[in-house]
C-alpha cells in the first residue's frame, strides 16, 4: 500500500522542520493579535460553490466532493477562508461589532496534477481579518506576511500587488476584456475559451503560451478602477511605502478564487519555478454576504507550507534540531528490568528524556544503544547492582561512573543535568 498520489507523509525525522515553521508563525500571530481557529476539514459542498465561485478551477475541477451516507454532498476543504467565514457567521461573531483576527494551520485538498510544489493534500497557514474596511488592514496583513518571511530569514521574495476593483467598476472592465479577447478567441486554450464569458479575468493569468501572447496589450484593471477603489489602492500602497515594503504593481494578478475585491496580492519565490507563489491573499468584502451574513469586509492570505519549506531548504534556513539530553537505562534480568522501569518513570516525571531496551538486547547491546542515542547518562542495573540496591550511573561525556542507590538516581541525575 502507498500513500495516495499527491499526498505525502511527514516522517518523524522531518517533523521538527514543520514545528520550526509553525513556531515562528505562531509567534508572529501572537504579536499581531491573531487567535487560532480550527474548523472541520469537511464542509457542505455548497459553502465552497458559493464562497469560492462555481466558475473557478478550484470548484469545477479540483474539489474532493462526495455524497455521504446521509445523501448530503460534502467536500474536503480546498481552502480555509470560506470555512472561517462560515464559522464567523454560525457563531455570530459579528454581533460584537469588533474586528476579528483569526489564523489557521492545516490540510487542504485540491485534485490537481501533482508536481513539485503542488500536491493534492497540502498544508496552509492562513489568516482572516473580518470587520475591517480600512486600507490600513490591507497593509497590515501584507506587512505581517512579510514579517513572517523576514523572521524565517527568507530572501529574494517578490511581492506582487493589484487591485481588482469591486462590483461597481469591475463589470465595465470585464466587458472591455471580453471585447478584447473576442477577436482572439482562436488563439486561446480550451479552458480560456470557456472562461471568456464566465470569468474573463482569469485569462490574464493563464500560463499557456498562446493565451499569454493573446493577452499582450489587454486592457489593465488599474485603468478602470472607480474613484473609491483607486483611492483605496493608493492608500494601501502609501502604507506599504511608509514601512519600506517594496512591491510590484501587477495588473495581471487576478487570483483564482472569485471572492476577491480590491486588493489582491501574491508573494513569489521565483526559484520554485512554475509553483512559485508561496503566499496569496486579498480582500473579500462580498464573501460574508454571499454566504448569508450581514455585509462585512474581510481580508486575509494563506501561505503554502510545503512551498515555504522548499524555499527555506533552498536557502538552508532550517536550524538543526537541538540535541536532547537523555538517559538510558541498561538492565539485565527480570528484577533489574523492573527496577529500571520504575526509575525510568521517575526520571520522565522530572522531565528527563529516558529510554530503555524493548527488544531483549544483551547488556553490551544496550550499552551500544545508549551510545547511539547520544545519552548523557547510562544507568546500569545487573545482578550485582540489585544486590547492592544501587545502580552504576555512568556519565557518558566524562566516562566516570558512580554507584547511586535506586531511590536517589532520579534526583541525582536531575541535579547533574541542572548543573551541566
Ligand atoms: P490560494 O492562492 O489558492 O489562496 O492558496 C494560497 C497558497 O497555498 C498558494 O500561494 C500556495 O502557496 C498554496 N497552495 C495552493 N494550492 C496548492 C497545492 N495544490 N499544493 C501546494 N500548495 C498549494 C487561498 O487558498 C486563499 N484562501 C487565501 C486567502 C485567505 N485569501 C484570503 N484569505
TrEMBL record:
Gene3D superfamilies per UniProt: Anticodon-binding domain (3.40.50.800), Bira Bifunctional Protein, Domain 2 (3.30.930.10)
Record's protein name: Histidine--tRNA ligase
GO biological process: histidyl-tRNA aminoacylation
Pfam families according to UniProt: HGTP_anticodon, tRNA-synt_His
Subunit structure: Homodimer.
PANTHER family the UniProt entry points to: HISTIDINE--TRNA LIGASE, MITOCHONDRIAL-RELATED, HISTIDYL-TRNA SYNTHETASE
Subcellular locations according to the entry: Cytoplasm
EC number of the protein: 6.1.1.21
Similarity field: Belongs to the class-II aminoacyl-tRNA synthetase family.
Main location: cytoplasm
Organism: Dialister succinatiphilus YIT 11850
Top enzyme category: ligase
Keyword terms: Aminoacyl-tRNA synthetase, ATP-binding, Cytoplasm, Ligase, Nucleotide-binding, Protein biosynthesis
Catalytic activity: tRNA(His) + L-histidine + ATP = L-histidyl-tRNA(His) + AMP + diphosphate + H(+)
Binding residue positions for L-histidine: 79-81, 110, 124, 128, 255, 259-260
Sample GO molecular function, one term: transferase activity
Domain (Aminoacyl-transfer RNA synthetases class-II family profile): residue spans on this chain: 1-321
A GO CC term attached to the entry: cytoplasm
Amino acid at each position: 500500500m502507498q500513500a495516495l498520489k499527491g499526498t505525502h507523509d511527514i516522517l518523524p525525522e522531518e517533523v521538527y522542520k514543520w514545528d520550526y515553521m509553525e513556531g515562528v508563525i505562531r509567534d508572529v500571530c501572537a504579536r499581531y493579535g491573531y487567535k487560532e481557529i480550527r474548523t472541520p476539514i469537511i464542509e457542505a459542498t455548497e459553502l465552497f460553490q458559493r464562497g469560492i465561485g462555481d466558475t473557478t478551477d478550484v470548484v469545477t475541477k479540483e474539489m474532493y466532493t462526495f455524497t455521504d451516507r446521509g445523501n448530503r454532498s460534502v467536500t474536503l476543504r480546498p481552502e480555509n477562508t470560506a470555512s472561517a467565514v462560515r464559522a464567523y457567521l454560525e457563531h455570530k461573531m459579528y454581533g460584537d461589532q469588533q474586528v476579528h483576527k483569526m489564523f489557521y494551520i492545516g490540510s487542504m485538498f485540491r485534485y490537481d496534477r501533482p508536481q513539485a510544489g503542488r500536491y493534492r493534500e497540502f498544508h496552509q497557514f492562513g489568516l482572516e481579518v473580518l470587520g475591517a474596511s480600512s486600507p490600513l488592514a490591507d497593509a497590515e496583513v501584507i506587512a505581517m506576511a512579510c514579517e513572517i518571511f523576514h523572521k524565517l530569514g527568507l530572501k529574494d521574495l517578490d511581492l506582487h500587488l493589484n487591485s481588482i476593483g469591486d462590483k461597481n467598476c469591475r463589470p465595465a472592465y470585464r466587458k472591455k476584456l471580453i471585447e478584447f479577447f473576442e477577436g482572439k478567441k482562436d488563439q486561446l486554450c480550451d479552458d480560456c475559451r470557456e472562461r471568456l464569458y464566465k470569468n474573463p479575468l482569469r485569462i490574464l493569468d493563464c500560463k499557456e503560451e498562446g493565451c499569454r501572447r493573446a493577452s499582450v496589450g489587454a486592457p489593465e484593471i488599474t485603468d478602470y478602477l472607480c474613484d473609491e477603489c483607486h483611492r483605496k489602492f493608493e492608500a494601501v500602497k502609501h502604507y506599504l511605502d511608509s514601512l519600506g515594503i517594496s512591491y510590484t504593481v501587477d495588473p495581471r494578478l487576478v487570483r483564482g478564487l472569485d471572492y476577491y475585491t480590491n486588493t489582491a496580492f501574491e508573494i513569489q519565490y521565483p526559484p520554485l519555478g512554475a509553483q512559485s507563489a508561496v503566499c496569496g491573499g486579498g480582500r473579500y468584502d462580498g464573501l460574508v454576504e454571499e454566504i448569508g451574513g450581514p455585509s462585512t469586509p474581510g481580508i486575509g492570505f494563506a501561505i503554502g507550507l510545503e512551498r515555504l519549506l522548499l524555499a527555506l531548504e533552498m536557502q538552508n534556513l532550517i536550524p538543526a534540531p537541538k540535541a536532547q539530553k537523555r538517559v538510558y537505562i541498561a538492565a539485565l534480568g527480570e528484577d533489574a528490568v523492573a527496577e529500571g522501569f520504575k526509575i525510568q518513570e521517575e526520571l520522565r516525571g522530572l522531565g528527563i528524556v529516558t529510554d530503555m531496551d524493548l527488544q531483549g538486547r544483551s547488556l553490551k547491546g544496550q550499552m551500544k544503544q545508549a551510545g547511539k542515542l547520544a545519552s548523557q547518562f547510562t544507568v546500569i542495573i545487573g545482578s550485582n547492582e540489585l544486590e547492592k540496591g544501587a545502580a552504576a550511573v555512568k556519565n557518558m561525556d566524562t566516562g566516570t561512573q558512580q554507584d547511586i542507590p535506586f531511590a536517589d538516581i532520579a534526583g541525582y541525575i536531575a541535579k547533574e543535568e541542572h548543573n551541566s
